[in-house]
Amino acid sequence: MTSKSRQVSKRHRNSNHPLQRLLNYGHNYRQQIWQATAFSIINKLLDLAPPVLIGIAVDVVVKQQDSIISLLGVKDIFWQFLLLSLITVIVWIFESAFEYAYDKRWRNLAQNIQHDLRIDAYNHLQELELAYFEERSTGGLMSILSDDINQLEDFLNEVANEIIQLITSFIVLIGGAFFILPTNIALVAMLPMPFILWGSFVYQNQLTSRYADVREKVGFLNSRLANNISGITTIKSFTAEDYESKRLAAESEAYRHSNSKAIKLSAAFIPLIRILVLVGFTSLLLLGGMAAFSGKISVGNYSILLVLVQHLLWPLVTIGRIFDEYQRAMASTNRVMDLLDTPIKIYTGNIPLPIHKVRGEIEYKEVTFAYHDRHPVIQNLSLHIPAGKTIAIVGSTGSGKSTLVKILLRFYEVSAGTITVDGIDIQKLNLRDLRRSIGLVSQDVFLFHGTVAENIAYGTFDATDESIIMAAKVAEAHEFIMRLPQGYETIVGERGQKLSGGQRQRIAIARAIVKDPPILLLDEATSAVDNETEAAIQRSLDRITVNRTTIAIAHRLSTIRNADCIYVMEHGQLVESGTHEQLLEKNGIYASLWRVQSGLK
After folding, report:
1. Order of strands across the sheet with 565-570?
2. Is the distance from CB of 91 to CB of 46 less than 8 angstroms?
């Protein structure tokens, strides 16, 4: 976890309110936020100037040489209107300039925060242990990194400015009303305000839970879509299109229903606000008009207030939409910040492990490991692997073979015991150094959307073309690559779907060869190849494992018969060990497995 991520995570937990969490996250943009806010306020003040100018114009018409402008020494009516026109032009120009300024500032701020938030969330996600991903769907995580962060962009682009300008209008109108109108008339005109604000807060609280449910439902929907697209081959082969269509329809219906509940509440709010606005406006129209008629206030001031009230009260009709967008954004904020607040359980050590100094001696000392809420997969296991030797681990499915590889890479932390590399506890080693020194070829090969060459060089990004081709030849992949349409520049498709399983496996082996690690982990490395290819790969593995610590996990015993030592694993423990010949002589589990696979039983 980076120091920046730790600081961000700590800041988030200082407050439970989503808006405060968002503001805490954006502390680096505090100056831009204040600038954008100031520009929004100035623009709204200038936007409220035309009603004042209209009132002054009315005052000139009514009072003529006794108007407000005449106090400046301008008595001629023409020059009063000319001066008023000049002021109007200046106000309009500055209003347009500040509108440009706040719009540009808010949009850039939205883009910057959105970018940083997505990168920070993704980087934090990469630091989390594999158990976190096993308990969550890819679609749900994609929904957070994409939909929720985009929702925040929309909020910062528009809604933040609208809220600030609405508050500015409210303050100006309240101050203006009580300055110009008699107190009793001002109070009547402002009477709807407390009810509008109270209703808005009640409305906000009602929407909070409803939009949290909406974001959860869209996460489920995205998860279903991601799973179905990834598994389209299985869906087609089992003619399950109708079945999956119904399941998707059910998820979409749940999302639609959840949204409908929120829409039902927001749609009812706006008509109620209109009624309250109408009460305030008509009260001012009637009582203010009578006050102007009786001479308690000037006709110009009455005109100013009528237009100002329009500027505030009618925009309040949109407060429902503003709160609607606000609640959507806050629901998304909570989901993103909750991801950033997820504690990292696997921390890097501080002891460096230079790859050129790694000998590759590995030792498991009384190791016990259990997956979350499950019985131990490995129990009190001890295993010593000398540097430069090849050992193999065989056993039935679920015996814990692959788990040994995962805990060596620190994908998971052991429950008890220690694992050492060259005598150093791996929890004390720099995590990236540890993983750089290990090459993994898994039975579940993952290729990225890109060229064959890019996938072979993945992880060794400075690899030369010569080293890529050499690795492909050693992995028995060069011939089939050259038969591809663009050779090494052929796009393999998402997850390598344009290649066969055996081809993907050989590219994965070539990738490990390019990495040239001192420790090599082969987890069913030949599980997806035919016998002829297996024999070819086995020859290449025999070459690349020389003077390299290698752990080979296999079901096919023929691929590991030449290992320096073979361990048989059952129920999380090592029950047999020895060379191929020694294990056959023992006539135990290994011998039984060998007879089955070789057709002797």
Report:
1. 438-441, 519-523, 549-553, 390-395, 565-570, 573-578
2. yes
| Ramachandran angles phi, psi of 174, nearest 5° | -60, -50
Treating both helix axes as pointing N-terminal to C-terminal, what angle do 30-47 and 160-180 enclose, rounded to 10 degrees? 40
Distance CA 29, CA 110 (A): 10
Cα–Cα distance, 259 to 327 (Å, whole number) = 13
What structural domains does the chain harbor? 3-341 (1.20.1560.10), 355-597 (3.40.50.300)
Joined together, the tokens standing for residue 389 give: 């030797």
User: What is the rounded CA–CA span in Å between residue 259 and residue 218?
Assistant: 10
Q: Which of 13, 333, 12 is nearest to 153 (CA)?
A: 333
**What dihedral angle (degrees, nearest 10) is formed by the CA atoms of 277, 280, 281, 287?**
170
Q: Which of 188, 192, 193, 150 is nearest to 171 (CA)?
A: 193
Q: Across the chain, which distance is largest between two alpha carbons, in Å?
A: 122
Q: Which residues is 369 bridged to in the sheet?
A: 378
Q: Of 84-98, 153-167, 355-369, 429-443, which gets the smallest average pLDDT?
A: 153-167
Beta strands in 331-430 (DSSP E): 362-370, 376-385, 390-395, 416-421, 424-425
Q: Return the axis-axis angle of helices 30-47 and 49-63, rounded to nearest 10°.
A: 20
Distances from the Cα of 282 to the Cα of 150, 196, 570, angstroms: 41, 16, 85
Taking the model in full, what pTM does it have? 0.73
Cα 146 from Cα 150, distance rounded (Å):
6
Partners of 553 in the β-ladder: 393, 523
Name the CA dihedral angle for 174, 179, 182, 188, rounded to a multiple of 10 degrees.
0
Tokens describing residue 214: 């909406």
Among 181-190, 257-266, 352-361, which stretch is predicted with the lowest mean pLDDT?
181-190
- Cβ proximity of 559 and 538 under 8 Å: yes
DSSP SS3 for 520: strand
What's the pLDDT tens digit per position in 546-591? 788 999 888 778 778 888 999 998 888 888 899 989 988 888 888 8
